[in-house]
Fold these 2 entries.
Entry 1:
Amino acid sequence: MYMRSTQQEVVVQGLLLLCLILAITRTYAVDDGTGADTDNPGADVTEGGDEQNGGGAGGDDNQTGGSETGGGETGGADEGSTTSDYTTECSQLGAYARFKYDDDCKQYVECQVDGTGKLTPCPLGLAYDPDTESCTWTSDVDGCKPGESDSNTADDCPSDASCTGTEILDPMRKICTQPGTIVCEKGESMPKCSLIDTYKGHFIADKEDCASYYYCSDDEKRYKGSCTEGYYFDPARQMCVYKSSLAQCKPIKTSSSSTSTPTAIDWDTVCNGVKSKFIPDPRLCNAYIYCNGDGTPRQDFCPTGTYFNNGSCTKTKPSSCTCESFLTSDATKKYEEYAPDTDKSKYYLCKNGDRILEDCGANSHYDLKTQSCTF
């Protein structure tokens, strides 16, 4: 009897202890306030995006173009900022859609896979064209004006003890002259009339020919002239003089010129008959177009310093390349380039992300070799 009672007490005590343990365990199993979802440990993992349609144009020289989420290689442009301000538009348009950014015509918004919009600048100082959903020359985009570039001066002219005051040394003729009468920029043979104010209103000596010269007008046009037989051009005196007075003159540089004419594009038909394939963008030789499976076009850029040529991004510049020799990853860097038009009296002036059609005027034409207007 005593033994049975003791056993019952032990069993009851054991049951009470078990209940107490279960109660304590239940208390600590309640949500600890951290907000973690124990049923979905991957709930806080950011969703990765699929590679954009078209991916990137593979190239030789170990270069690749293209993009993930559509941004792609933009010639060194900023990556852009992702914002939730455009979730409404992107939810309607879908991932990889692009539309204009109202506050700046040189930027656009690209929808991401998570429904946000990424503000992206056009590379190389170009502007965004909402009609083609691509970046192109600023003057080709309605209502977009090129940014004002700061005036510049030719500051690479050599100094010499024999020159006085503001004079600089002309290494071609071994004489002292005033700034703006010889080309001083390193690697250049012709004056950049649209970039350097010092040249305006001056006759500038030709580095290729002792008898020739350029003239920069106030409206930034560049003209080419030459002295008559038996005379050389003297930049210091701003006139033609007898050869004998500048017998020491020797040309020091030979320049090259662009012979290609810019090509237009019909965005509505550019991918006709082409699907799932990369094709050149005829407006920009460092850009390409991917024709999607449904035949819709999408533009992307090759890495900085490369061009789209024969189906890939390469360092070899195609012969059709116009107005892009000086496009760099730095959109603020000044550049100037000339290209011919089909009209012999006109030419294209390319500078700071824009390509402008200029007219030489009456009784003159554009010369390919000198890249200037001549009479």
Note: The chain is about 10% helix and 25% strand.
Entry 2:
Amino acid sequence: MLIALYMVLLVGGMWILGASFNFPDFGGVLFAAGVLIICAAVALPVTLSRHENRDSNPGNW
């Protein structure tokens, strides 16, 4: 179920990144927001999977 959230974040971030070139007034803000959303779409699965697997391997940090 979370894969749908990650895909929405990734595709939405790409869309905002592309749409930022059509708005000259605040394009920089949209570009930065798109980059941050894409970073969140990549970082969330990595971080959450590490926390989920932490309990299965107690000796591994």
Note: DSSP finds two helices and no strands in the chain.
